[in-house]
Amino acid sequence: MKTSRLAALAAALIATGVSTPLAVLAQSTNPSIPVGSLTAFPLIVQPGTRPNLTWNITYPSIVQDVVTVTQNTVTPKQSLYVDVRVLGAGVTVSQSGSTSFTFVPTEAQVSYNGGSYGRVFYGTNNNVNPNTIVYTRLVEANKPLRFGGRYYHNSKWGPYFNSQSGTLNVRTLVNGQTPPTTYPLHTAPTLESFIRPYLDAQGKVKIGPMDVIVFMELTHTDSQRNDQGYDLQDMVLLATFRTVTTP
Q1: Can you tell me the distance from the alpha carbon of 190 to that of 181, in angstroms, rounded to the nearest whole number?
Q2: How many domains does the chain contain in total?
């Protein structure tokens, strides 16, 4: 229990029926805002009276509170729901003598708790709808989620990479981290438009507090990381975690 001029003013506003937005005490970035309650006694404030204020603020969780995020794997610390969406599939090819590029079919896969990798998406970037959940399930503590992908061109599959390939082709990041590309991704000439909403002006990942973004590089190997084409946007997934009590 604390009192201050600001608190007394809040109590006075409550007493007169004027609501005080709790957001003034909150972070400015949605949806990462605290929620809480504020009560005052007495409710009717007389001149010279100092009201007693009681408040409770619950700060939002961040995904690192409930999962362990390593270089390419996400492991829950408790039972959670996960929803996976495809943000983009950026593998492109150009015809000989042409300066235009065409998206080619790309496959995304997910593995849970050491199981086999199963397809959750196959198509070109033109088939991507970031609002569509392509994979959802209840995940339990200490049972990891892993990711994989590959592309299809000229009637054959390109190289296949997943979280267990022993390479840097699959990377999992959270809000505020910087994509580990040799050249800054947000200023790269190869930056795909579907990535822009998820990077801030400094090139850091800009996603929700309960999100993990999965970047995949499917056309280059680790030895080609200095190539500008190594941009980790050949397949990009967004995994959103919810507690089991969240509807």
Answers
A1: 12
A2: 2
